[in-house]
C-alpha cells in the first residue's frame, strides 16, 4: 500500500535531516556503510538506477553503480526508510544531535569513499592517458603504426581502454588505423570482452560488424558474451550466428 501524503512528507523530512547529519559523520564510516547510504540516497532522489555501467577500471564509480543498481525497483519511500533506520543503528541519538538544517545532503559525492586518482600533468601524458580520457584528436595526432598494438604496464592495449570507456569514436579511429581487434590483455580478454562487460552496446555492435572473434575465451574460459547479462547485447551476438 502506498504511503499517504502526510506520512510521505514526514518520511521525506526525516530523510533530509538524516542525510544532513550523516554528512557530519561520513569520515568515521567504513566503505560498505558509505555505499549502503549512497545507494539509498540515489534511489530516494532519482529512483531506480538507469545510468550506464562505468568502465571496469573506474573502481569507485563501478562500486557505487552496482550498489545502486542492486536496489532494483525499490520505492523511494522504502529507500528513505532504510536510510533512516540504518543511521539509527549506527548513531542512536542522531536526531538529538541533528542541527535541523536539511539543506546539506549526503550521497552524491561520497568523497570519503576513496581518494581521487591523481591528475597527470599535461606534459607527462602518454597516448594511453589521452585514450582513457577520450581525447581522439591527441591520440590520432600521436598514433604510429609501431605503437597501435603496444600494451601498457597493466597489460592493456589502446583498444581495451577505448572499449572499456565506451568511446566509440576512439574505437573507430583505432580500427581504421589497423589496431588488432582481437588483441588480448594479460588475462586473455579482448576489447569485445570489455565492451560487453561494461554494457557498451554501441561499441559491441561496431566490433561485431568489424569481425571481432566471438569465440575467444579469457583466462577463466569466458567468451565476451559470457561476461554480460545485457539482453540487447546478447541479441547482437544472436545476429552474428
Provide a compact summary of the structure.
It contains twelve helices and no strands. The chain is mostly helical and 241 residues long.
Q: Would you kindly provide a written description of the structure presented here, covering whatever features stand out?
A:
With 241 residues, the protein is an all-alpha fold. The chain has helices at 5-25, 31-46, 59-69, 76-90, 94-97, 127-133, 136-142, 158-165, 168-176, 191-197, 201-209, 231-240.
Defining traits:
single chain, 241 residues, mainly alpha
Based on helices, strands and strand pairing, what is the structural class?
A: mainly alpha
Q: What is the terminal-to-terminal distance?
A: 47 Å
Oligomeric state of this protein: single chain
Number of strands: 0
Q: What fraction strand?
A: under 5%
The average pLDDT is 84
User: Radius of gyration over alpha carbons?
Assistant: 22 Å
Low-pLDDT ranges: 100-118
Order of helices and strands: HHHHHHHHHHHH
Any idea what the shape is?
Answer: elongated
- Helix proportion range: 40-55%
Number of helices: 12
Main sheet summary: none
